[in-house]
Amino acid sequence: MTSPFNIEEIYPDDGEHSLRMPRRQAGSSPQGVAVTLLADYTLRARAALPSAAIVALLAESGVTTAGARAAISRLARRGVLEGSRQGRHSSYRLTQAAAVNLSVGGHWILTSTTAAEPWDGCWTTVAFSLPQDRGTQRRALRGQLRWLGYAPLYDGLWISPYELTPRAQARLVQLTLGAVTVFRGRQIALAADSQRALIDAWDIDAISGHYEEFLQRWAPLVPQVRSGEVDGAAAVRARTEIMDTYRRFPILDPQLPRDLLPTGWLRQPAREVFAAVYDGLADPAQRHVRAVVGRFTDSVDPGISAHTTADLLAGVHGDAGWIPPARREPPSHRRTAV
Domain 123-185, what architecture? Predict the structure, then answer.
């Protein structure tokens, strides 16, 4: 299984923009929390927040002042944030490249956790051979394959029940410089004890365990959210944490066909709990973020607005505004982009 804390795998750079999204760490990453906060409340309008307000909001999530300021500085160097100054006061907002990247990623999170598409019973096999001295290239290829939903059946042999799209093919050629071969076909049945089951390439028990942990953590909060008991800083923290957790699932769960999964698969219950918490806390969290920002500025930008799951599905932010889904190429192994 790939690390669930690598934000670059969840929001991969499309190669058209010069930015490097922060790598997640085991535990709370100040940069990751900052990106989530800014995306959750400023993405649509790319509203700028006073740096002092960002520091204050991060403090409510347990990030020290020094850690918050370092995170802002590093995100600016990465091309994720861009700053401006008025006198002694500085503000930051998401760069255009980061806004597009995060918006596509947000859309992918939701579309990738819907019901899997029908399966024709065929498998795509990617075989590659790279010399030992090309370790960086090998790691990049494996990361790309896993992001596309593939898993290693054997070393150098990766499989997926879905077709490899033309753009994905072109990307793999770039990564391997011809040292890759792709096949698609049906598995030939042998004696049950003489072949490895293809589904064993994925750790189904581990994926199921992640869903179970998610539901155990968040399902009890749903009644409190619906009754209005969660407010203020607690609402912001809950939305940030549940997004940070739920956005792992497009990588952890490769959307295998239902025919291959055990009964009672928890993908849909997890999605429902995520929407109940994330959407249910949008209004109180938005009020709190605006209140915190209001402590550091005379005028709160109206673009500070909590988006919901419906907003994430509606379109992505681009130079011309919201791009409708028909014009988008979501980064999914079941669609067209790499």
Answer: 2-Layer Sandwich (3.30)
SS3 labels along the chain: CCCCCCHHHHCCCCCCCCCCCCCCCCCCCHHHHHHHHHHHHHCCCCCCEEHHHHHHHHHCCCCCHHHHHHHHHHHHHHCCEEEEEECCEEEEEECHHHHHHHHHHHHHHHHCCCCCCCCCCCEEEEEECCCHHHHHHHHHHHHHHHHCCCEEEECCEEEECCCCCHHHHHHHHHHHCCCEEEEEECCCCCCHHHCCCHHHHCCHHHHHHHHHHHHHHHHHHHHHHHCCCCCHHHHHHHHHHHHHHHCCHHHHCCCCCHHHCCCCCCHHHHHHHHHHHHHHCHHHHHHHHHHHHHCCCCCCCCCCCCCCHHHHHHCEEECCEEECHHHCCCCCCCCCCC
Residue 149: which region, alpha, beta or left (left: phi > 0; alpha: psi -120 to 50)?
left
**Domain ranges within the chain, ordered by starting residue:** 123-185
259 pLDDT more than 80: yes
pLDDT in tens, 120-170: 889 999 888 877 767 777 788 888 788 778 889 888 899 999 888 787 777
pLDDT > 70 fraction of the chain, expressed in percent and rounded: 81
Give the other-Cβ count within 10 Å of 112's Cβ: 24
**pLDDT at 8 exceeding the cut of 80:** no
